[in-house]
Please model this.
Amino acid sequence: MDWLLDIIYEQSVIQAVVVISIISAIGISLGKIRLFGVSLGITFVFFTGIIAGHWGIVINNDMLVFAENFGLILFVYTLGLQVGPSFFSSFKKGGIELNILSIGVIVLGLILTLLFHRISGISLPTMMGLLSGAVTNTPALGAAQQALLQINPENSRGVTDMALACAIAYPMGVVGVILAIAVMRKMWKINGNETNEQKTLKPNVSEFQIINPAIFNKSIREVMQLTEKQFVISRIWRGGKVTIPTSDTVLKQRDHLLVISGKNDVNSIEVLFGEQENTDWNKEDIDWNAIDSHLISRRIVVTHSKINGMKLGALRLRNLYGINITRVNRAGIDLLASPDLRLQIGDRLTIVGESASIDNVGKILGDEMKRLESPNLFAIFIGIALGVLLGIFPIYLPGMSFPVKLGIAGGPIIVGILVGAFGPRFHLTTYTTQSANLMMRQFGIIIYLAGLGLASGAHFFETVFCGEGLLWIGLGFLLTILPVVIIGYVASTFFKLEYAGNVGMLCGSMANPMALNYANTTVNGDEPSVAYATVYPLSMFLRVITAQLMVLFFT
Model:
């Protein structure tokens, strides 16, 4: 058994790999445990590492630093790739209001951090550690640590204190948001049947009859120019026959149209065409292929690299092949198939038309699932390299004696967002399956947490069980609960935001998926998840960047 003890306690490359792997495996297993329906998930890796460090397990410092940094870089870059496609679109329509409110949560948290720093005398780096734990955001902790080392490379004790503060505040960060949601639900007496305006942004199917003389005998192209609303005419019933319209199809009096649009645009479209029918075309059990015998509905997956980044309208598939693309599903979210929508590898297009025509369109778009099984690793590695280079690029600001750097957390997340958002326009395939992206993100953050826990474990318990540790717990809880309750009240009272969208926005601004799981159980539908996804990209970006700026400017 001596050889086994030697592997665990004697520093070597093998010891580092074995120790980090065991800590990660134990932490993942413990993360499945739920107390009162709440679990800390992979954060248990952090606490497992702390216990291992407390027991005196030490690995080579160079290996530890590499594991932490590489894990953090991998996580934030793949996170940027994931949120990139929706990052800029999240500012459109109702997303502007939600993102403003989420920024309010972040700014209020930063103000309270500075205020508690002044009142308590706790160092600002330690307060940033408390804030990172209070908002359950370990990437922000990594960014703040990098900024502190940029100012003083020898301040290893300050870096350790930040990690300890984060570990102390993290559990209350999870529970605090859930408690705030429970209080809000009690105050507003939510029964789970609330609706949210965000739901109206989803694609909706409606049937209209043309009785407006102003559009009689006009082509669909001419009619589309009469309104700013975006919609797709999927089918036309005329004289008992169903057809797939093209842009040149001329509309006649008493034609029945099946239209896909945003639900909040339905009333405007009804005014345009004349009359909406009562048939509910949004039921999940509709057999679309049974509606018309010679037409079928099928999903085609974009896998052809030449299609990546092209606008849907530029393909002219509707006129060339007599088919209609009714919607585009991207990463589980249905999008309206507007002509200006840029297609990406992995998009799933719902196409209506004759079987032979759809087969031809499938050949153009690719529709080869095997291509999606092999991600474009070039985009991963070149993006990481560019992100790290951006992170160490010095930015000189007036009044500062040293240059500001985005660091290994800020640089990669910015490059990841830009590559995810604009890569398809330059025909750079950034697609990875959801499972592949999730695996890379989870692998990165787990390695980072294991290393962070090991580095912090030696002084954790002596810090927690002292007067200062209790103060940290109290301040961490206040940093969690106050921004959530205050902005939640403002959103409800002054912005008239309904409960479902409100709690989803709050969970997203706090980057707290555990609280989102609870919020989803309090309402029918997925409105909290929609709001969460709307604010999450910007919130994660701001958390990482502001954590660095706070340390650089106020330390």
User: Anything to note?
Assistant: The domain at 197-371 is CATH 3.30.70.1450 (Alpha-Beta Plaits). The first strand starts at residue 203 and ends at 210.
